[in-house]
Design a protein that fits this description.
The N and C termini lie far apart (113 Å). The protein contains ten helices and two strands, in the order ββαααααααααα. Strands 1-2 form a two-stranded parallel sheet. 25% of the residues are buried. Helix content is 68%, strand content 1%. By secondary structure, the chain is mostly helical. It has a domain at 188-339. Helix 1 packs antiparallel against helix 2, helix 4 packs antiparallel against helix 5 and helix 5 (175-211) runs antiparallel to helix 6.
Length: 340
């Protein structure tokens, strides 16, 4: 006579034996058998790793640069020999000019290298401050606060903030609070100056492009104003980039705009203009000036976030709405002046 089905039994899992074999009749402690999943997860497919390319472009640029330097050196040598062959004093004048040129090249190269190092230092401080604020790391926050003090050690206007940060850093326990204190004492005053710089550039672009008769003049003026604004903001926050450093900084700003969608000047700007009732009050030409000013303001806001040594923790990041009303007011004054 066959046995009937086994009655269900409740038992704690720590009293059960886990087995790999199939089900059967067991005595003693209950047995738990794994049930195979009929729908296993697919095996993850990793992206293929790109093979390292041969540095042919780097080799080409190095070779061409070396040949140009050799040709320049030979040309200078031939010129000095010709000057000495003509008369000694002309030769020595040529030597003095060559030495001055070499010293100038060395000084320019040193300035560019220092500018790049300053930008990298600010990037390092920004990343460390973000990490300390996110993880509430007191030790990391104190270290990054000292780096911020050292960055502004030669700025007289930051003396009070540096003293306050150095005096209270040992009394604060939380790392995020230390980051907040450093931002409040040292960066918020600079943020106010940065906002005024962005507003001034945006208003200037709006007015000039609104009254300018040529599109080429508009483009050249906007490019020049944006370039000047990025350099001013970098110097305000302690960057002071050279030419190569400025190009690197500009690339980072444009990359930040691409990531945040800041260059979307189409629907979003039109919605902002309509929402503030500005589009109905301006002509098409003056409305174009407002749009150019808003684009300049967006580039300035992105430059602030890139050049700032700390992320925005206690302070409020600037927004495009902060400058929209002022830009519209400036353009409206221009329209009224032209009407009169």
């Amino acid at each position: 006579m066959s046995k009937g089905p086994r009655r269900p039994v409740a038992f704690p899992l720590d009293e059960a034996d886990f087995a790999e074999a199939g089900p059967g009749t067991y005595a003693g402690r209950p047995k738990v058998f794994p049930t195979p999943d009929p729908y296993p997860l697919p095996t993850p497919i990793e992206a293929p790793v790109a093979r390292k390319k041969a540095p042919w472009l780097t080799l080409l640029m190095s070779g061409v640069s070396g040949l140009i330097l050799l040709a320049l050196g030979i040309a200078v040598d031939n010129l000095l020999r010709a000057l000495f062959a003509r008369t000694d004093w002309l030769g020595w004048i040529g030597v003095a000019l060559a030495v001055a040129a070499v010293l100038a090249v060395i000084a320019l190269a040193a300035r560019e290298i220092l500018g790049i190092f300053r930008l990298r230092r600010i990037e390092h401080i920004h990343a460390a401050a973000l990490e300390a604020a996110t993880t509430d790391d007191r030790k990391g926050a104190r270290a990054v606060g000292k780096e911020l003090i050292a960055l502004y050690i030669n700025r007289p206007e930051t003396a009070r903030g540096r003293a306050a940060l150095a005096g209270h850093s040992a009394e604060i326990i939380d790392g995020r609070d230390l980051i907040t204190l450093a931002e409040t004492e040292l960066l918020l005053p600079l943020d106010e100056i940065a906002r005024r710089l962005v507003l001034s550039s945006a208003k200037r672009v709006s007015v000039v492009t609104a009254v300018s008769p040529r599109a080429l003049v508009d483009v050249l003026f906007v490019v020049a104003e944006v370039t000047r604004l990025i350099r001013k903001l970098a110097m305000l926050y302690g960057g002071r980039p050279g030419t190569l450093g400025f190009l690197r900084l500009t690339r980072h700003v444009l990359g930040h705009l691409a990531i945040t969608g800041g260059m979307a000047a189409g629907d979003s700007l039109v919605q902002q203009l309509v929402g503030h009732g500005i589009a109905a009050k301006l002509s098409a030409r003056l409305g174009e000036g407002v749009v150019n000013g808003l684009l300049t303001a967006r580039v300035g806001i992105a430059a602030i976030e890139v050049c700032r040594p700390f992320p925005f923790v206690a302070g409020r990041p600037p927004r495009i709405g902060d400058v929209m009303a002022e830009i519209a007011k400036a353009v409206k004054k221009t329209e009224d002046a032209e009407t009169e």
